[in-house]
Amino acid sequence: MLAVAPPIPTERQHLIAQARSAMLSQGPLPATLAIEPWIVRSWQRCLASGHRPAQALVFNVVSARAVQRTAEQHATLLQAARPVLEQLARAIADVHYFALLTDARGMVIAVQGALDRHDPRARAIGRVGIDLSEAAVGTTAIGAALAELQPVWLHRGEHFFDANSGYSCAGAPLFGPQGQCVDMLDLTGVDVPERPELRHLVACSARAIEDALLLQLPHALLLRINWPGSTLGGDGDGLMALDADGAVLGTNTMARQLVPQPLREPGAPVHCSDLLALPWPLLFDAGQRPPAVPLDLPLWSGLRLQGLALRSHPARTPSRLAHTVPAVAGASSPAPLRAAEAALIRQAVQDARGNVAEAARALGISRATVYRKLGTVKRQGSREFW
Fold it and tell me: Is the pLDDT of residue 384 over 60?
């Protein structure tokens, strides 16, 4: 079967114009117009708010006090985003796009790139403090990315207001270490050729900012995770930041996709043993032996990941470990029997690459005994964790 060629630019503009006409007549959009459903939803929200495409549009600036307050609230994110925005500006300079970073409401908090100050349309949006939310300026990549929580591409007439029909833009939401949408990243050009591949670029750049934001958190251990067969250490890794007690301080988007998150109240703490089916001290044991060697990470679902455990420096011994592994049998200060037994079991689990069932078979004991012998500790809350 032959692939259908994409429409040429003039045909695409004609299809967009047909879709806008159908929208205004309140009729159903024919599937042949190939307008993405999220664009239709945005158009419908704008119409429901009483807006009309031909009405005059004003780009409002919020108060200086609000701009300062927002900048202070986003200082950590702006610091994490700066290197990524600088690299992004170089990537898009030759196609005459520029980058905007907004807060979760759609207010611009940073501008980067080759912005043509002689063009009033570029000046209108390329300013810190401009409200570019859907409620203020209709369908844009900014409002759509924040509403749909996914990367989007929007070209010229796909914007709701006629006054915005010169813009082409790609947008992607930014998620914080706890998984909430905190900001969004936008790439915009004025009267430029369509570049739908920018949706991938803006999504990758947004993930890079998320990773930088996560790595700014003070942590005792960083766990890089991915599927077996993937190369660990690259931009595609899931990242999980742990404190010295094994509690999860934050994760990036990829980690949340790789590891099912437990149901919990918003803001409730999560321990890594909620996510990984192995004694969590093994992660810290692996993290203090350079060079880092990939670990086998079983999940409670039965699936398996691979990971690299990287201790922060200076590293603090996890307070809940409190174990001493005897280096030489018969040393002058022999470890208690329980500690020696625990050390033997830990070594067996490590030799089994985290597979507790396999370690239990090698030791001739049950899996439950492995967990019981190593011991559990109470942490804040009602559950027990490794």
Answer: no
| Same domain membership, residue 230 and residue 151 | no
Do residues 165 and 192 make contact, with C-beta atoms less than 8 angstroms apart? no
Q: Count Cα neighbours of 99 within 13 Å in the Cβ-side half-sphere.
A: 27
Q: Which amino acid would we find at residue 315?
A: A
DSSP secondary structure letters along 295-312: EEEEBTTS-EEEEEEEE-
* Residues 236-240, mean pLDDT to the nearest whole number: 95
Whole-number Å distance between alpha carbons of 383 and 376: 10
Give the residue from 196, 215, 234 where a domain finishes: 215
What is the distance between the alpha carbons of residues 327 and 329, in angstroms, rounded to a whole number?
Answer: 7
Write the pLDDT tens digit of every residue in 21-36. 777 776 666 665 667 8
- How many Å from the N-terminal Cα to the C-terminal Cα in the chain? 56
How far, in Å, are 72, 73, 177, 382 from residue 79 at the CA level?
11, 12, 15, 38
Q: 153 has which bridge partners?
A: 170
Helices (H) and strands (E) in the chain, counts: 14, 12
Same domain, 115 and 211: yes
Residues 275 and 301 in one domain: yes
The count of other CB atoms within 10 Å of the CB of residue 148 is 17
Cα-to-chain-centroid distance, residue 52: 35
The three-state secondary structure class of 218 is: coil
Alpha carbon distance 335, 324 (integer Å): 7
Mean pLDDT of 2-7: 48
The whole-angstrom distance between residue 154's C-alpha and the CA centroid of its chain comes to: 22
* Backbone angles phi and psi of 128, in degrees to 5: -65, 135
Token pair 């699936």 is at which residue? 303
Lowest mean pLDDT among 149-153, 250-254, 316-320: 316-320
Contact of 219 with 257, CB cutoff 8 Å: no
- Which residue in the block uniquely carries the two structure tokens 């679902």? 301
Which tokens go with 206?
Answer: 């947004």
